[in-house]
Amino acid sequence: METNVSDKVKTWLGVASIPIMVWTAIPLLWILATSLKSTAALADSTQNILGNFWPKHMTLDNYRLIFTGGASDLFVPALWHSIVVCLVSTVISVILATFCAYAIARLDFPGKGVILTTALAVSFFPVIAMVTPLFNLWRQIGLFDTLPGLIIPYLALTLPLSIWTLSAFFQQIPWEMEQAAQVDGATSWQAFRKVIAPLAAPGVFTTAIIAFFTAWNDFVFSSNLTSENARTVPAALAYFTGASQFEQPTGAICAAAVIVTIPVVILVLLFQRRIVSGLTSGAVKG
Amino acid sequence: MSRIELKNIVKKYGDGFPAVNDVSLDIADGEFVILVGPSGCGKSTLLRMVVGLEDITSGDLLIDGKRVNDLAPRDRHLAMVFQNYALYPHLTVFENIAFPLRLQKGKHSEEEIRRMVHQASGMLELDEHLDRKPSNLSGGQRQRVAMGRAIVREADAFLFDEPLSNLDAKLRGQMRTEIARMQRRLGITTIYVTHDQVEAMTLGDRVAVLKKGILQQVASPRELYEQPVNLFVAGFIGSPPMNFLPARVSGSTLHLPHAEVTITGDLVEKVKGKDVVIVGLRPEHIKDATVETTPEHAVHFTAVVDQTEWLGNEQYAYIPFDADRAVRDKLDELDRELDGEGMHPQLIVNLDARSRVIEGDEADLAFDPALMHVFDPESGDNLTRDDEKAAQIAKDSEAQRRMALERAKKREAAKGGAA
Ligand SMILES: Nc1ncnc2c1ncn2[C@@H]1O[C@H](COP(=O)(O)OP(=O)(O)OP(=O)(O)O)[C@@H](O)[C@H]1O
Ligand SMILES: [Mg+2]
């Protein structure tokens, strides 16, 4: 996308964006800094520079603690649970949402509006209101503290979101693309696979990332519907304890927070090239 | 190669609105048929029904004698260029053109596909753009890619939906001749939708004029121009459009705003009992009597010229007049149907460039009453249409079409033999 913005305007926009970047980056940097502090430095500001911000002596003790030390029993399984639960629910949700959104965008069938409204209505429910009944139900049918027991609510959380974003995205793809393919000799399925799917890919990736984050960041379901066997990282963090009763596990929590941020960063870096807008430009005239 | 027959085709959309109403059209093998009409008259709808993207509400569509109403688009073997090209943005120009070939699984080897794409791209002068994406092409190049995708496959017929509407005048002229040449050379049945007068008159063997989903007349461009069946066709074909003048009837005399015309023969019978009729006069049929020779029986009249436009090779003069109240409504309605601007009625005269008429002058004008059309103001029917003459024109243009096809085939054969 080319825009006709003069250099002067560009410079000003750049300057204006600096405070915003600082504003968003400082809390993250603080977490990173805290994760690198030793237990002593956490309590004693003289061991830090820049006004308690950065430790004079960096240490990886906190990381050791969560991976191999006392907190590893809690953290490492939780990390696996997080990965498995989020990937599975993202994949299922994106696949289902792709078909659903395609139908909504392309076909005229009775109940189309109902599906969209229902999807929206579901996401209106406060999550916390669903947790208690789910907790009782899951215990009775044996889903409590299992991975599927988390995947199912995560699907309920991510599906409406995915359906909405994807149907908006599908509606942007010109209908005629598909019709042209059919005239060129494609079956409906071929038209979908060879024309619509590649065009929809950026939308699908965007949706997948949003769905993944939603599941990855969830705390309420995970902390209430699991105990040991399926607890994910956000919930597990709450159960961290310090070396003694009087010590806060701040360092370990921050280290874990840094670790769980890494997949998110990787995902974004990996897919940011695919999330390019304007891929359909040049399809139609005008 | 195929013959396309439309029999009483009706299309009603969900809201019950008949977008196409009882259209019958028989398109011969190798014929080039143009669909014209004002915006929203159902041209695209008709084309989309032929190609299979729109269900036919009632009536039959036959391709080579076989009813294809319920066939999927892919089984009709037609190629279409969409009103907005509909190129595949994620594929290169090469892959766009190769797309229909790749879908015919196992029919073409990779080698063959490359050869066929290059043949098409060579003809459309797209060779140096084959590796580029459609988004980086100009409008004209995109249009040619769309064309390439349509011609690369050996389709039974071509369907074009206003393919040149987005190009500038020069490129449009270029592509127009290219399309005409290609159609003759390949001898492929073609249906072509357009808004453009020039395209309609020059490209087609026959032109079908639609109004609000109803077929008005199907004829060669010349017949449409010289022997229109009704007011609508007469007003739609020709640029600048035909002048419509109210005329009071008294016996065998028609009183026009500026002149009086004596009529003879059948026409006297036909206008009998009518108070007013509408007279149609083409701008180029009115001459400046001072510089051009006019036939003996020409009707002379004088009128004050309100405005002139000198274009170098020709000259337009505008002469306002007051329309009779009795036909005023009819003329206004016609103006609306033709997407007109609702201007005050005026006579447009296409004068010889030598004419020295100046604005505000009283001009000495004349026209040949034999070239005049008389329309029934109620039904809009052309009362002066000469069916015999029309049949003769139709016969001539059909013979011309066959000859042109024949010639193109011979030239092609000679080329093939030489190669
Ligand atoms: N999907 C649709 N649903 C309902 N009505 C429609 C639909 N598509 C077209 N129409 C109606 O059918 C009529 C004919 O439309 P069509 O697109 O065939 O016009 P057109 O002759 O191609 O016009 P243009 O020259 O502007 O392209 C119009 O009155 C339009 O409102
Ligand atoms: Mg149209």
TrEMBL record, chain A:
ABC transmembrane type-1 domain ranges (all copies): 79-271
Membrane topology note: Multi-pass membrane protein
Transmembrane segments: 12-33, 78-102, 114-138, 150-170, 195-216, 250-271
InterPro entries for this protein: BP-dep_ABC_trans_perm, MetI-like, MetI-like_sf
CDD domains: TM_PBP2
Protein name: Carbohydrate ABC transporter membrane protein
Pfam family, one: BPD_transp_1
GO cellular component entries: plasma membrane
Keyword Isomerase recorded: no
Source organism of this protein record: Nostocoides japonicum T1-X7
Keywords: Cell membrane, Membrane, Transmembrane, Transmembrane helix, Transport
TrEMBL record, chain B:
One Gene Ontology CC term in the entry: ATP-binding cassette (ABC) transporter complex, substrate-binding subunit-containing
Residue ranges of the region described as Disordered: 378-399
Sequence ranges assigned to domain ABC transporter in this UniProt record: 4-237
Keyword Hydrolase: yes
GO biological process: carbohydrate transport
Molecular function (Gene Ontology), one example: ATP hydrolysis activity
CDD domains attached to this UniProt entry: ABC_MalK_N
Assigned EC number: 3.6.3.-
SMART domains given in the database record: AAA
Entry-linked InterPro entries: AAA+_ATPase, ABC_transporter-like_ATP-bd, ABC_transporter-like_CS, ABC_transpr_MalK-like, ABC_transpr_MalK/UgpC-like, Mo/tungstate-bd_C_term_dom, OB_MalK-like, P-loop_NTPase
Annotated coiled-coil segments of the chain: none
Biased composition (Basic and acidic residues): 383-399
Keywords, sorted A to Z: ATP-binding, Cell membrane, Hydrolase, Membrane, Nucleotide-binding, Translocase, Transport
Record carries keyword ATP-binding: yes
NCBIfam families: PRK11650.1
Protein name in UniProt: Maltodextrin import ATP-binding protein msmX
Record lineage: Bacteria, Bacillati, Actinomycetota, Actinomycetes, Micrococcales
